[in-house]
Amino acid sequence: MPFIAKIPSTGERVDITKINNPRAELKADDLVCQLCGQPMIVRQGMIVKPHFAHKAECTSDYKRHPESPQHRAGKELIAATIKKELPEYSLAKVEYELPIPEAKRVADVAALFPNGWIVAHECQLASITVGSSVLGLLNYC
Question: pLDDT digit string (tens) for 112-130?
């Protein structure tokens, strides 16, 4: 369940977590997946947090896995906490689901610093093994 979609005409990334009423404020026809360019829709309900969903299956070659509600909550906690708790992040822009093309991965939460540095933060709920692709992403950063 992605939190980020893209407006193809401008290339602007849209973070659904920063929009009060996504169904009212966003036009589904104007949104595409930031990875594959396929159309996205807004999903929002009484129980489910607002998120984007593909109209069809994502055709991207980026490695992604389905996310549990706990994983999504973990991403939100990381994003909310790092700027508040880490003074060195005060000037950083914090974004969800930032594609890292060189690794063909998507960082759960990324801090973009004015000097060009990007620090990826991953919410890992499953065991990490030595051969895990998550370690490859962490080593890349």
Answer: 999 999 999 988 877 666 5
